[in-house]
């Protein structure tokens, strides 16, 4: 069988696949292009074979020529979502991945594989069974153009090409796991397992067994079970909130990183392991070490590369981009057609401090979607006001937890100030069924909103002490009946 016949057989086989396949050589010349991919691209197969992708207009304008990018960088591009609009206005949702074809460290070509999203749903269960620990996220999933964020991304991309351990520093909700997955998927380990574990979520009595694994007979009920070190072999293990890991386990983790070996609980035999470690912490390392939450020796061993992710309040210019991103995401999930946010919502979001960072913004957008009517296309202030107010109260209470805990619960609440009498009268005209306490809570919500969650400023306007206001806020937050009543009454 000569080369030409072999090529014909392979071409015929590819045409039978449900996935779209596009293979190019190192110069971008198309070698294989099956019928399914031609259907996705609305092109004639014969007009693509043996043609350079740079000479095909649709490829350049459609997806920024991702095949060419992979040829130049040698880095795979995974799980890229794309929407094709057919002549009948039907939308076709696809997911594509592009892999470099490498031999002896030289990129010889690239292959693009595209699947229709509906077909992914059918095979989802079996895929999870076969490969439950593969990451789906790349650096392309990070949304933003802030200079500090871009510096962090560039550093992470460089770190991905090394074998070094990485420490990612960032507040809760800032995107530490997305960075970790991006590092994994841009590294030579991208085809192996990515394991993420939150150290703060694991019971101290179980965490050692979860990490190291157990041997049958080691203790009552123990069975032979691999730990995360074994599951992540040849892949990447991300330990989130590393500063929550008990210090004695931090010492054991340090040894695993140094020696690349460990013992299961109850075992006498050493197991060799090849794992890339990524640790994340939600506070500055210096503070974590000073407060005794992070061992200095582990820090110096793990932090070969340190990546700092700026909080959302330090990159406010990215908020419009993030809003658009999450609107597109939930439009796709919920089948809606929301176009954007109103000017008042954007103004509010640009003035908010975002203690919960990107995760909080996503939650607010999702919450707005959940109460919008199908015909509504703009997220307006009434869709998010109550949600943001409660978050403001929650974050204020967390900030003042020590002060609040010193207030006796049996303390008699102080009367409200005469300065907000007009608010009470306004509420009474809307609902005669509300009690004075409920109207008081409405006034508190209103003033806290006006003060953007600042308890000190709000207490001055309300004419009560800071401690009394904290007491009232806690009473409001934990009394679900009053919260429901408050939600039904619009705020000025």
TrEMBL record:
GO process annotations (BP): regulation of DNA-templated transcription
Keyword Nucleotide-binding: yes
Domain Sigma-54 factor interaction, residue spans: 142-370
GO molecular function: ATP binding; sequence-specific DNA binding
Superkingdom of this protein's organism: Bacteria
PROSITE patterns, per the entry: SIGMA54_INTERACT_1 (PS00675), SIGMA54_INTERACT_4 (PS50045)
Entry keyword set: ATP-binding, Nucleotide-binding, Transcription, Transcription regulation
InterPro entries per UniProt: AAA+_ATPase, AAA_lid_NorR, Homeodomain-like_sf, HTH_Fis, P-loop_NTPase, PAS-like_dom_sf, Sigma_54_int, Sigma_54_int_dom_ATP-bd_1
Listed name of the protein: Arginine utilization regulatory protein RocR
Organism per entry: Sulfoacidibacillus ferrooxidans
């Amino acid at each position: 069988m000569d080369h030409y016949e072999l090529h014909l057989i392979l071409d015929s086989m590819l045409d039978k696949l449900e996935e779209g396949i596009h293979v190019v050589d190192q110069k971008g010349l198309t070698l294989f292009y099956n019928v399914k991919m031609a259907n996705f691209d609305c092109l004639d197969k014969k007009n693509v074979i043996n043609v350079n992708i740079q000479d095909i207009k649709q490829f350049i304008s459609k997806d920024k020529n991702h095949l060419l990018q992979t040829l130049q960088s040698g880095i795979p591009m995974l799980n890229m979502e794309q929407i094709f609009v057919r002549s009948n206005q039907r939308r076709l949702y696809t997911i594509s991945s592009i892999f470099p074809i490498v031999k002896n460290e030289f990129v010889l070509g690239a292959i693009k594989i595209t699947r229709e999203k509906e077909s992914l749903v059918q095979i989802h269960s079996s895929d999870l069974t076969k490969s439950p620990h593969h990451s789906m996220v790349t650096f392309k999933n990070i949304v933003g153009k802030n200079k500090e964020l871009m510096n962090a991304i560039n550093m992470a991309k460089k770190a991905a090409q090394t074998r070094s351990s990485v420490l990612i520093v960032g507040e809760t909700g800032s995107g530490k796991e997305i960075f970790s997955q991006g590092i994994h998927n841009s590294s030579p380990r991208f085809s192996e397992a990515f394991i993420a574990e939150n150290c703060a979520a694991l019971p101290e009595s179980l965490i050692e067994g979860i990490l190291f694994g157990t041997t049958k007979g080691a203790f009552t009920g123990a069975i032979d079970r691999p730990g995360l070190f074994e599951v992540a072999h040849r892949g990447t293990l991300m330990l989130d909130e590393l500063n929550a890991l008990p210090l004695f386990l931090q010492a054991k983790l340090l040894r695993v990183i140094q020696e690349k070996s460990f013992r299961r609980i109850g075992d006498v035999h050493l197991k060799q392991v090849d794992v890339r470690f990524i640790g994340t912490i939600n506070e500055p390392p210096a503070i974590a070490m000073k407060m005794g939450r992070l061992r200095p020796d582990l820090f110096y061993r793990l932090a070969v590369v340190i990546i700092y992710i700026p909080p959302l309040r330090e990159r406010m210019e990215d908020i419009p981009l993030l809003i658009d991103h999450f609107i597109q995401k939930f439009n796709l999930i919920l089948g809606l057609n929301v176009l954007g946010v109103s000017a008042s919502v954007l103004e509010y979001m640009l003035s908010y401090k975002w203690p919960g960072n990107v995760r909080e913004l996503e939650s607010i957008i999702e919450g707005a979607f959940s109460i919008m009517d199908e015909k509504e296309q703009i997220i307006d202030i009434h869709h998010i006001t109550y949600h943001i107010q409660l978050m403001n109260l929650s974050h204020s209470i967390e900030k003042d937890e020590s002060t609040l805990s010193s207030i006796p619960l049996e303390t008699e609440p102080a009367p409200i100030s005469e300065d907000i009498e007009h608010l009470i009268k306004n509420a009474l005209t809307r609902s005669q069924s509300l009690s004075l306490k409920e109207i008081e809570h409405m006034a508190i919500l209103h003033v806290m909103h006006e003060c953007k969650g600042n308890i000190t400023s709000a207490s001055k306007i309300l004419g009560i002490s800071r401690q009394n206001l904290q007491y009232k806020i806690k009473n409001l937050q934990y009394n679900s009946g009053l919260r429901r009543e408050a939600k039904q009454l619009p705020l000025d």
